[in-house]
Specification:
Elements: E1 2-7, E2 11-17, H1 21-31, E3 37-42, H2 43-49, H3 54-57, E4 62-67, H4 76-88, E5 96-101, H5 103-115, E6 121-126, H6 129-135, E7 140-145, E8 148-155, E9 160-164, H7 173-189, H8 191-197, H9 203-218, H10 235-244, H11 251-268, H12 274-286, H13 298-301, E10 312-320, E11 323-330, H14 331-337
Parallel strand pairs: 2-9, 3-4, 3-5, 5-6, 6-9
Antiparallel strand pairs: 1-2, 7-8, 10-11
Helix pairs in contact: 4-5, 6-7, 6-9, 7-8, 7-11, 10-11, 11-12
Length: 338
């Protein structure tokens, strides 16, 4: 087992291993022997792993809230429904929420935990590659609203994160591709990860490398005042593409498309050499994420959370593999660069 300790606004541990879902359930029940537990679980995860989650759900104090799969479930109605379940069951601040699924479950479950009774403990058990390498740590929780992604949310860290890489074996191809989109992002940000991708290493080690990089950023800038904005590489256009597709395009795939746009913009701004652009495009092609398709997303960019009060957008530009920087561009200039 690998362990990472995150020290952001609070300290928590990330445990990484393979084929240990049964042990995870036993450990949680042992750590919380009397507390009520609500498991927010993705409907597909519930179907696939019902038999392997018997240890957890055999306890009467453990309740289950099944969430429909997909980004469209990350809405205010599901949020209110989970709150109602907690209130009806008289959950206290000492009780526990478990988010068992991908990024949608983690974002929604975490936001519920951050607001119910002004904060209740919650554990992340990510089941997708994207949530394992990115969204399960860092403390960002949110729901979508008015067709705008993550527009209502809070910074709220989990109590613990348990990662079982065995769960990736049942992951659909489109979910794997979504995870690869975030993986490419980390490889561009960190040269060590870029080099690791071309080596024959276990997925567990690749996950740990991404989490270690994100941990180093989050510990310095938990609430995204400056340095953490680098993690938004590809997200300005990526979020716009997601919204335009009504979230039919998976988050990581949209981020990959956003990276293509960001690469071309960085080149237009004379920040990224042609040779480095080719490296980035080849990296995307390696994971079957490169596309020449264009998207008219101008209207969606105007609702981006990264727009400052002076009307400028904080854009993550690339200079080379392992070196990116945040630049402030007026919306008008940014739109012209698309």
């Amino acid at each position: 087992m690998e362990t990472l300790i995150v020290k952001a606004e609070k300290k928590y541990d990330i445990y990484i291993d393979s084929n240990w879902l049964e042990d995870v359930q036993k450990e949680i029940l042992s750590k919380y022997p009397e507390e009520k537990i609500l498991v927010v679980i993705d409907e597909n995860v519930d179907k696939i792993y019902a038999e392997k989650l018997v240890t957890l759900f055999s306890k009467k104090r453990v309740k289950k809230y099944i969430l429909p799969s997909g980004e469209n479930s990350k809405n205010i109605n599901e949020y209110a429904s989970i709150l109602a379940e907690l209130a009806r069951s008289n959950f206290t601040r000492n009780d526990l929420i478990i988010a068992l699924g991908g990024g949608v479950v983690g974002d929604l479950g975490g936001f519920v935990a951050s607001t119910y009774l002004r904060g209740i403990r919650f554990i992340q058990i990510p089941t997708t590659l994207l949530s394992m390498i990115d969204s399960s740590i860092g403390g960002k929780t949110a729901i979508d609203f008015d067709n705008k992604k993550n527009i209502i949310g809070a910074f709220y860290s989990p109590t613990n994160v348990y990662i079982d890489t065995k769960l990736l074996e049942t992951l659909p191809e489109e979910e794997l591709l979504s995870g690869y989109g975030e993986l490419v992002k980390y490889a561009i940000l960190d040269k060590k990860i870029y080099k690791l991708i071309n080596k024959d290493i276990e997925i567990k080690d690749l996950i740990k490398a991404c989490l270690s990089y994100k941990k180093s950023i989050v510990q310095k800038d938990f609430k995204e005042k400056n340095l953490r904005m680098l993690l938004n590489l590809g997200h300005t256009i990526g979020h716009a593409i997601e919204a335009k597709s009504k979230f039919r395009i998976k988050h990581g795939a949209a981020v990959a498309l956003g990276i293509i746009y960001a690469t071309k913009i960085s080149n237009k701004l004379n920040l990224l050499k042609e040779s480095e652009q080719i490296k980035i495009f080849n990296l995307l092609k390696k994971f079957n994420l490169y596309s020449e398709k264009e998207f008219d997303v101008k209207d969606y960019v105007y609702s981006d959370k990264k727009i400052s009060s002076n009307g400028k957008i904080n854009f993550v530009a690339m200079q080379k593999i392992g070196k990116c920087k945040i630049i402030a561009i007026t919306l008008e200039e940014f739109i012209k660069l698309l």
